[in-house]
Amino acid sequence: MSRFLLVVPPLAGHVNPAAGLGDALTGRGHEVAWVCSETFIRPLVGPRATVYRTGTRLYRPLGDRGLAGLKSLWEGFIVPFARFTLPAVDRAIEVYRPDVMVVDQHALAGAVAAQRQGLRWASLAPGSMELTRPYRALPKVDAWISGHCASLCAEAGLPRDETFDPRFSPYLVLACTTAALTGGAAFPDHYALVGPMLAGRAAGPDFPWARLHPGRRLVLVTMGTLSAEIAKDFYPRAVAALQPLGDRLQAIVAAPEGALPDLPPHILAMPQVPLLELMPHLDAVVCHGGMNTVGEALAHGVPLVIAPIRHDQPVTAAQVAEAGAGIRVRFARVTAAQLRTAVTAVLDDTAYRSAARRVEDSFAAAGGAAAAAERLEQLGRSPAGQERPVSSPVGPSGL
Amino acid sequence: MTPEPAAIGPADARLLAELVEMLLDVTGEDEGWAAGITAATRLEGDLQLESVELVALGELLRSRYGEGVDLAAFFAELDIDQIIGLTVGDVLDYLAPRRQMPAHRE
């Protein structure tokens, strides 16, 4: 039995896989505690879990996309969140005395604190951004990110070390993807590509199951929890795309209340959908390319139409398209007609479904949360002094 | 990367027209959208060019103006604020001295 401390930022796409991992660890008889915003983690982990609260510092993305979006992610969230949570992480370590820490790649305080205390720790990569270094083609942007990481380490009093990067544990990097998506990229031995970690989701909201017609294909449109504002002109285009297809499909649009008035009967809009419960019934997913949604869809062999908005979404969209499991469209510019063509293609051309099933198989083989828990057990058991050398991240050049 | 849009001469105006034509090509937008593009228009903030569109633009520029024009290499020299603020005029400034005239093409 080991004691694991999980450090996670208050973002749905990060908290969900971490909760799946926490379930797997407790299921195998380990103790798990959390450093996170109580508001985000409590509904997923239940009333009895140990949570060291950080307070909630919400990331409120502006309309920024592209490099402006990257800048706002780092300067508006990752860096201040690390500073803001470091005392809470230190306190949690002192009180809980973990054997191993698991640190989300965007919760850098956990990495800094673990390193400072000489604790073994693993990185958790829920998305595709930090894993494959998509900004390698823009060396000054890559260096700018590394500079933020180095400043945080220096502020925390870590000795200067060019090879240390708080996004990449030198011991173990757990990634919610597989080679079916990352392609031919070679990763070091201490990278474990385990696929999505799906368990641990709070009970979904009510859903009008009786309104689903068994004879029709079912399409879900969801643009993520952080993108409601920026996607508000995308939903009407999606509805216009699906409007003439009422004889053959039904669609569920996860849109804010009142965003889509006067819908035809074959399109339902609701602010929250029970994603995991719906997945087995779906024939296609139209989404923004958040790794959570993409991972859940592909884990069920459901092909995708992805309109990436920002951050790692373009990277994920390119990976899915490359794997043949979906079609990438342009978020800002795709027309209703183009969207209709893409949706019809993933529904009618069985190659997309077959490719999605291949990714599903690779996820199943990778083992998900159970495999991640096993790697963490090994890390907990490995004798002190046999630590791996610190190594830098590797990956293919991205876009 | 200078913030103020410089006044452009006839040669530059022609280059701008060619660039706008290529932007139309990679984005699939219409003439109305294109009519709003000036030297001061920002690629990211105003045109919302996506990475796939930038790659396509780079390919068009290279095939039109020759191997001396390498948009990816140009971007690789820029820092994050320069990329965020990059304007159509900055791209014209990059292109002007490097392009081979169409007469040199086969």
Topology:
The complex is a heterodimer of chains A (399) and B (106).
Chain A: E1 3-7, H1 12-27, E2 31-36, H2 38-45, E3 50-53, H3 66-96, E4 100-104, H4 108-117, E5 120-125, H5 139-155, E6 172-175, H6 179-182, E7 191-193, E8 217-222, H7 234-242, E9 249-254, E10 267-269, H8 275-278, E11 284-287, H9 291-299, E12 304-306, H10 313-323, E13 326-328, H11 336-348, H12 350-366, H13 368-381
Parallel strand pairs in A: 1-2, 1-4, 2-3, 4-5, 5-6, 6-7, 8-9, 8-11, 9-10, 11-12, 12-13
Helix pairs in contact in A: 1-2, 1-13, 3-4, 3-5, 7-11, 11-12
Chain B: H1 10-27, H2 31-35, H3 51-65, H4 71-76, H5 80-85, H6 88-98
| Rg result of chain B | 13 Å
The CATH top-level class label of the largest domain in chain A: Alpha Beta
Number of H/I helices of chain A: 13
* Strand-residue proportion of chain B: under 5%
**Quaternary organization:** heterodimer
Number of domains of chain B: 1
Residue stretches of chain B low in confidence (pLDDT < 50, at least 5 long) are: none
What fraction of the residues of chain A are assigned to beta strands by DSSP?
A: 5-15%
- Give the name of the CATH architecture of the largest domain in chain A: 3-Layer(aba) Sandwich
Reported for the largest beta sheet of chain A, the result is: 7 strands, parallel
Would you identify the CATH H-level superfamily of the largest domain in chain A? Glycogen Phosphorylase B
Q: Which structural class matches the secondary elements of chain A?
A: alpha/beta
The CATH class of chain B turns out to be Mainly Alpha
| Secondary-structure content class of chain B | mainly alpha
Description:
The complex is a heterodimer of chains A (399) and B (106). Chain A has a 7-stranded parallel β-sheet, sandwiched between helices. Chain A has a 6-stranded parallel β-sheet with strand order 10-9-8-11-12-13, sandwiched between helices. Chain A contains 13 helices and 13 strands. Chain A has 2 domains: 3-195 and 367-381, 3-Layer(aba) Sandwich (Rossmann fold); 209-363, Rossmann fold (3-Layer(aba) Sandwich), CATH 3.40.50.2000. Chain A is globular and about 65 Å long. Helices cover 41% and strands 15% of the residues of chain A. Chain A has helices at residues 12-27, 38-45, 66-96, 108-117, 139-155, 179-182, 234-242, 275-278, 291-299, 313-323, 336-348, 350-366, 368-381, and strands spanning 3-7, 31-36, 50-53, 100-104, 120-125, 172-175, 191-193, 217-222, 249-254, 267-269, 284-287, 304-306, 326-328. The longest helix of chain A has 31 residues, at 66-96. Chain A is α/β, with parallel strands linked by helices and 399 residues long. Chain B is mainly alpha-helical and 106 residues long. Chain B has a single domain (10-101), classed as Non-ribosomal Peptide Synthetase Peptidyl Carrier Protein, Chain A (Orthogonal Bundle), CATH 1.10.1200. Helices cover 58% and strands 0% of the residues of chain B. Chain B is built from 6 helices and no strands. Chain B is globular, with a radius of gyration of 13 Å. The model of chain B has no long low-confidence stretch (mean pLDDT 88).
